[in-house]
Amino acid sequence: MTTDVLRAPRPMARPLRRISDKSGLDTAAGHVLMVLLSILCLFPVYWMLASSLRPANAMFETSLWPTSMSLDNYRQALEAIPIGRMLVNTLVFSVVSTAFQLLTGLLAAFAFARWTFALDKLVYSAVALTWLVPFQVVMIPNYLLIAQMGLLDSIVALILPNLVSALAILLLAQAMRSFPREVIEAARMDGARNWRILWEVMVPNLRGTIASLAILIFISTWNEYFWPLLLSRTAENSVIQIGIQMFMTAEGNQWGPLMAASTLASLPVLVIYVVLQRQVVQSFMKSGIR
Amino acid sequence: MALAAQAPTRRRRMTQSRWAPWLYLSPALILLVVWIYWPLVDALRLSFYQWNMLPNSPQIYVGWNNYTRIFALPKFWQSLRNTGIYIFGILPLAVLIPLAIAIYTHDLPERSRNIYRAIIFVPMIIAPVVAAAVWRWLLDPGYGLVNQMLQGIGFKPVKFLSDPNTAIWTVILITGWKLIGFSTLILSAANANINPSLVEAARMDGASKWEIIRDIRLPLLSSTALFLVVMTILLGAQWSFTYINVLTGGGPLGSTSNIYYLLWDFGFSTMSVGWGSAAAVILFLGFGAVAFVLFRLIDRYTFHDN
Amino acid sequence: MADLTLSNLKKSYDGKPVLHGVDITIPDGHFVVIVGPSGCGKSTLLRMIAGLEEVTSGTISIGETVMNDIEPADRGCAMVFQNYALYPHMTVRQNIAYPLRIAKLPRAERDSKVEAVAKILNLTEYLDRRPAQLSGGQRQRVAMGRAMVREPDVFLFDEPLSNLDALLRVQMRIEIKKLHRRLKATSVFVTHDQVEAMTLADTLIVMNAGRVEQIGSPAEVYRKPASVFVAGFMGAPAMNLFPAAIGAGGALVIDAPTGGVGIGRTSLAEGTPVTVGVRPENLLLSETAGAGLPATVDFVEELGGSRVAYCTLGDREIAATLPPGDQQLEGRPVWLTLPPEALHLYDRITGQRIDVPVHAARSSIPSAFAPSM
Lengths: 290, 306, 373
Description:
The complex is a heterotrimer of chains A (290), B (306) and C (373). Chain B is mainly α.
């Protein structure tokens, strides 16, 4: 027993320390840090709202709270561009894109989760790779294709390349793969064919994933700028993000209407965020880096 | 049998499942081919032609001409260098600072953490165009709040977006503003996921606060941090595109242009399809190579805490 | 009416065989248990019967119909899965009714069948709950209900009790047995638990490494294990097995530290390599020197109703069951007697049972001494 290292005397006696209290100082410093970060993140959004409500003659005031309020900026913005029409366009664009990306995603993901088939890994990688292709790389051929179809300057053209997304396929495939295989087999034993298994067994159990994905796609599409920028010719057939840009010109900026239009463009997303805050954060954290 | 009469048995043969997966895959695959894979091939083809995008004008085969001329273009190298500056400028904002904040604030009480979480996430859902508009307003040299405050404490107004020396950093800061809260949330979540018994074990072993951070938390956060680094390298310059386009148009003097903006510039401002496509091919190959190396690195240097 | 016949059934994954030609006939109404260690192919076999795995070669027939490529749902089989496999988003009622809904049964008929099944399984008050709100045993009963409601020709059970705690497992075992008496449907039950296997089976099928080792009643399998594998697998503590040689005149000789010891006489030819098996409960252990094989007690496991002594004999370990008692035996020398009539002989090359009687080696059998008797 003399060589037993576990029983050897302790190499060095440490001084006995008291259990340190959770130091209030550290927590306070943490709060300060988070408050500063919060101000940094929220203030620009607040400033947009505040500026949009200032009357034209008080536009350049620096008081935190508008001393007098007016909706003039909104009236001006609405007169300058067809904001209502553009908001509707954006809504159609976002809703249709979301619905189709979910649909094509569910079907494709089901194929990956349900079967092993020849080339399945290859096809899966081929889908995954598209997630990494920068849109700028394919924009010219995409544009030419839309032009050939005679669809320039239309909402349909905006939607077409957005009917499918690798992200939706990959996320749904992941969720479906972790769904217990036995339950699917039980459904087969009970006589359900694939179509039924997908819609009656899989989909009802993936509601959480689907909802979170829907939020993510909707918000990303709502905020989409680049593709509409390529296609838009007229304000009537464009989305709100393009509308905002119209108040920023080389000759000068109409700050008031710009802030009003920005506020209107952000409102739907902010409302969704206020109502579904937890789900929105979660769905972005799962997959929303792009 | 105890229950009731046998149901009539009609026995179906097992259907060949060989084509079924393809049926389910077809909508997605067709769309991906039409909108991504075929365009890739088409971009490759167009990169060997000279064409101005007008349907009636001829497509002239020019061989490698587009490529050699792009490589000879100072603007191309400037954009490439700027792309690097964007990536390295965004990295601290998207990874380092959030990492420090996440570690420093991990023992805040649950309730206040939730409130902070809700607030610092807001920039992530704001549209890039809106962010650009708001920052343009805040940073306006004449009337913007920031410059008014700078003047208030005795500084000269800064031309954030029109001075070639500051413009690129301004765009980087705005890109970082969109990301910083989100990255902090991701890293905080990873930090909160660290098994508390590991920290307790380290305390039993006599580790100090700093030693726990250095030996337990940082190594266990490294895979999440590495993921953010990789995403920033791959996508950082893309994230900036909207701000460049809305705020500076690549200027002044090309100082804010990056490779993505250059592509757009070639393709749609100057209408030279050949140049645009050649630049797209170069970007795609370069991007692919970088992505390949980075994902190999992730595979190699990540370990999982199970 | 619904005999289940498997003939020369084979399965391989990517060319690697996992079932090497299985031949089994299960008569209508029988309760058959397939038992074997994990990886022996028993679950694969069951899933092939269900139609969830493709058949590589051979045939599966139920009654007169070959089922090889009939849809799982149309084979007349119902399956109870290991993890219950209930539909999480449906209530108990919807779960049980799902196969009927797919079969497009009218609502009224569906309801009455579900009620009937629920009554048998004592699930009536849980019909409107979801699986997540049920205990393990209740979920298991719902899974059974979903199988029963289809009135299948054949019930398939894939280790259905392995996720339950010990007490519930015994309870459900009895319930399944009672249910079978009542419904009298052919049942195939897969398990790795030998107690479950012994207690449930009319017919026991022991499998190992993709082959059937033995088919027989539980008592048969226990009393006359057909191979070394079965001998070692069925029974706890496991049967003691050691190599032995046949000496001159058919003498059965095993190695002991003191040299070869004759333990019986057989009609086998001199030099036949054999393995001798003896169950721990048939071993006689004596503290009196001279009788039998000398050994040392290593340690004693107390089981309450009995004790198991683990003895070392040279470099071999031998288990012997003792009646309950308090003697301190650990570390003591003992002498083991192997009663000839309780010995099992196996061909050491093929592992197959050799059915020849073993007679006593000498006329005088040493008096057995069991402590505290």
